[in-house]
């Protein structure tokens, strides 16, 4: 018999749970429900160009962004897949101002789900990579319906986090605190199969990723860092190349695999940057650290930030450890070239 093994995401989770006696099995059920929601979203995303699902519904979400129909669809698909399984006590979605309660007639469980249902929504109509980002915590309230307190936990308390990328193929990349693993959807059998085991990010890369259109709003430290990356220096592999998808999932996926740095800094218009701590910063920071990388707001570790509100924003510097450390030195004014 050959050594060849097909490892579905479900098998991977179950085998991981077996390796940790005391795990309840609830987790594998939870991730199975999530994987189903991702397949439902993938089905809609992949036919978005065919049906009348494109275009705006003509109103904005609570962040002031234009809401596309697919955002709403993905938001509901995840809620409806996760509301009845008995694993969760509360959810929060980037598309909803307040926490999402579990309907009273369903049982509650010990986990909390925070999600960005559709990330990169400005890319939908161009058929460019978009994704879903998720993050799981253990509840802190004792029992019954969960609350905002269960959601407002610092990122280091995540028990799992990951994203789905609806790209040239559809992938789940996730971690339960035991490395980062990638699973690619085989559409012919409808299963996510292990394709990227134990992803490790290079210690230093040669790609930087930032929306340079905001240049004139940046601090001097930030401008100096970008000048540094653009300078010629063989010894440190400069100049770096610039890549920017505009979908965080796409930019993080490339950064995890190739190394380098992704940034969404604070600027004069957005003093806390654009990205959301709970829906985007924390799950990506968890994955990045698990892969051997680093994630800070330029001054402190993302995972140590105590969130004060659900939709809080944070500047984000994330990627190869050495690159993020150098960025911090510039931002903190410790060097200017
Ligand atoms: P979302 O579609 O969930 O609102 O997130 C969009 C985010 C993120 O995916 C991306 O990194 C960033 O917005 C891009 O912002 P800019 O268009 O300002 O560069
Ligand atoms: Mn997003
Ligand atoms: Mn979104």
CATH superfamily of the largest domain: Fructose-1,6-Bisphosphatase, subunit A, domain 1
Largest sheet, spatial ordering of strands: 4-3-5-6-7-8-9-10
| Mean pLDDT, all residues | 92
Q: Can you tell me the residue ranges where pLDDT is under 50 for at least 5 consecutive residues?
A: none
Please give the count of helices.
Answer: 8
Number of strands: 15
- Architecture per CATH nomenclature, i.e. the level-2 architecture of the largest domain: 2-Layer Sandwich
Q: Gyration radius, to the nearest Å?
A: 20 Å
**CATH topology (fold) name of the largest domain:** Fructose-1,6-Bisphosphatase, Chain A, domain 1
Coarse shape: globular
Q: Report the span from N to C terminus.
A: 58 Å
Q: Which ligands does the model contain, each kind named once?
A: 2,5-anhydro-1,6-di-O-phosphono-D-glucitol, manganese (II) ion
Structural class: alpha+beta
Can you tell me about this structure?
The protein has 337 residues and is an alpha+beta fold. The protein folds into two domains: 9-196, Fructose-1,6-Bisphosphatase, Chain A, domain 1, CATH 3.30.540; 207-331, D-Maltodextrin-Binding Protein, domain 2, CATH 3.40.190. Helix content is 28%, strand content 23%. The chain is globular and about 60 Å long. The relative contact order is 0.13. Residues 65, 94, 116, 119-122, 211, 246-248, 251, 274 line the site of 2,5-anhydro-1,6-di-O-phosphono-D-glucitol.
